[in-house]
Amino acid sequence: MTNIASYIDHTLLKQDATEEDILKVSAEARQYRFKSVCVNPVWVPTVAKTLAGSGVLTCSVIGFPFGATLTSVKAFEAAAAVEAGADEIDMVIDIAAAKRGDEAALVADIGAVAEAVHAGGAILKVIIETAMLEDDAKVLACRAAVTAGADFVKTSTGFGGGGATIQDVKLMRATVGPDLGVKASGGVRSLEDALAFIEAGATRLGASSGVGIVEGEQSSAAY
After folding, report:
1. Is the pTM of the predicted complex or chain greater than 0.85?
2. Among candidates 5, 11, 20, 17, which has minimal Cα distance to 154?
3. What range does the domain containing 172 cover?
4. Catalytic positions (predicted)?
């Protein structure tokens, strides 16, 4: 690992975020060369326009934060976000389906969104909301994401009463194997956190504290 910023989705998902806030995180992403800026769908056109030519991707969330949306609506929302300029989509699963062990329902839900996202040339990350699930349900959800053709599994929305843990990232990596992406999100606040999650198997980090994480790396490199 040579550049922690390349792992980070610089994230602002507060419902009261203003255009000024969105432009600020976009400017930070350009400055620090984050992997993406992750925002609610309404801000996708603004972020995509602001980041054009920068190499920083535009990421949006779908069925957020509860996942309790009709599959057809998730697929429509995802397609609309991609058409508006999103390069990556982070969708929330049907958490109730995971809790009751309904793998077929999860595959159908994720698969419909994956089809819509991939048709637009974007990639799909699947948020399983680990804080709400027992380990067997986490494994089930990860397995469903693989079967449905997702590109990543992701720990958390940050709105579900808990965030990423090292144990969950290790479990997710063990379940999906070496080829699928694993995103740790929720509670990644320092360089030490970031490095620990990467060591555990994360290939992407969702963080609203990206600037502090990168500046921590830069400070460490100076000594």
Report:
1. yes
2. 11
3. 4-221
4. 90 (proton donor/acceptor), 154 (schiff-base intermediate with acetaldehyde), 183 (proton donor/acceptor)
